[in-house]
Specification:
Oligomer: single chain
Distance between the termini: 36 Å
Radius of gyration: 19 Å
Helix content: 40-55%
Structural class: alpha/beta
Strand content: 15-25%
CATH topology of the largest domain: Rossmann fold
Number of domains: 2
Strand order of the largest sheet: 3-2-1-4-5-7-11
Order of helices and strands: EHEHEHEHHEEHEEHEEHEHEEHH
Number of helices: 11
Shape: globular
Bound molecules: nicotinamide-adenine-dinucleotide
CATH class of the largest domain: Alpha Beta
CATH architecture of the largest domain: 3-Layer(aba) Sandwich
Length: 314
């Protein structure tokens, strides 16, 4: 039984990591500025999950968290997430994402905790230079979100070199599944299909990006956590495939009889102010070889599971 701190534990991904850790018997200190019903239910069921409310950019909150719990490892998820949110709040993005991670690394150094899994993102690469990229792809992020997440990776490398921290960056892509909070694909497609609403997305049919089902991401996180030593400090935890948005729309239309979803051709857009980088598939060969990572959900299976959960929640 291990003792794990999860930051951002109330989030879409964080709460699933907490659930999986508790289910296998680990003790979890679940740190977040917000507490919702799913996390509260986990804390009430079985006594393995302790909620620690706190602000990641406040040094004393993070220092107390690490000092009081002295975990075997930290899974760092807390962040302001997504290019749209970061464009709307660039200062807060830097304060929370960069300042928050610095607090985590510094508190770990101070209290002798060495291992942290940092949830990172394909946004650190900027525009992909190929349809499928591996972890050695150059990093030229261009929005506050990607820039902040790349800064965290680099700061983690300093802490690894100078202070012996064991910082492992798990770079994932467009994670989806029940509870996805952001109004982007495939959530907007699934919501419209399940609610029987027609939806036309004006452009994006040709846009390809790696979509990873949340359960697969969680399995990759656990595999990285359980590996005693890492030869690499970054892994792609994704699906390894990049279906086009037109293909995804076809799958949703096929899975939900009567769905009326259509998409125009071309590149995807987050409104008219935020440019979406050129993307593709994340090569998962390193995670497969080093961690034994094997995603179980291709896009059809993942969407079917997501739609089932969405229907059940209605
Ligand atoms: N969802 C994706 O598609 C995706 C893709 C790549 C990487 N990631 C990374 O995974 C991690 C989790 O993402 P998510 O999708 O669960 O996002 P989310 O927004 O659902 O969760 C983030 C959590 O962090 C918490 N948080 C935000 N600011 C905080 C603060 N100042 N102090 C304490 N807690 C704070 C939020 O309350 C929230 O519960 C993030 O680090 C993100 O960059 C997510």
């Amino acid at each position: 039984m291990a003792s794990i701190v999860v930051t951002g534990a109330n989030g879409f991904i964080g709460v699933e990591i907490v659930r999986a850790l508790a289910a296998r018997g680990d003790r979890v200190a679940a740190f977040d500025v917000a507490v919702g019903p799913a996390l509260r239910a986990l804390a009430e069921g079985g006594g393995r999950v302790t909620i620690v409310p706190g602000e990641i950019s406040e040094w004393h909150h993070v220092a107390n968290l690490i000092r009081d719990h002295r975990p075997d490892a930290v899974v760092h998820c807390a962040a302001i997430v997504g290019v749209v949110a970061s464009a709307q709040a660039p200062f807060a993005t830097m304060r929370v994402n960069v300042g928050g991670a610095l607090n985590v690394f510094e508190a770990m150094r101070l209290f002798g905790v060495t291992r942290v899994l940092n949830l990172s993102t394909e946004e650190i690469y900027g525009d992909f230079r190929a349809a499928r990229i591996d972890e050695s792809h150059p990093c030229f992020p261009s929005m506050p979100y990607g820039i902040s997440k790349f800064a965290v990776e680099q700061i983690g490398r300093d802490y690894a070199r100078d202070h012996g921290l064991d910082v492992v960056n798990l770079r994932t892509c467009w994670v989806y599944g029940p509870g996805l909070p952001r109004p982007r694909v495939p959530k907007i497609l699934v919501d419209a299909a399940v609610e029987g609403r027609a939806l036309h997305i004006p452009s994006g049919g040709d846009f390809r990006v790696d979509h990873v089902y949340v359960d697969d991401l969680v399995s990759g996180v656990l595999a990285a956590l359980d590996k005693p030593e890492h030869r690499f400090d970054a892994y792609h935890i994704a699906s390894g495939e990049a279906p086009s948005l037109a293909e995804i729309v076809d799958v949703v239309d096929d899975l939900v009889p009567g769905a009326r979803i259509t998409v125009g051709p071309g590149h995807y857009a987050f409104g008219d102010r935020v440019r979406v980088a050129r993307k593709g598939a994340l090569d998962i060969a390193r995670a497969a070889a080093e961690l034994g990572y094997r995603p179980r959900f291709d896009i059809r299976r993942g969407l079917a599971a997501y739609i089932d959960a969405r229907r059940a929640a209605r």
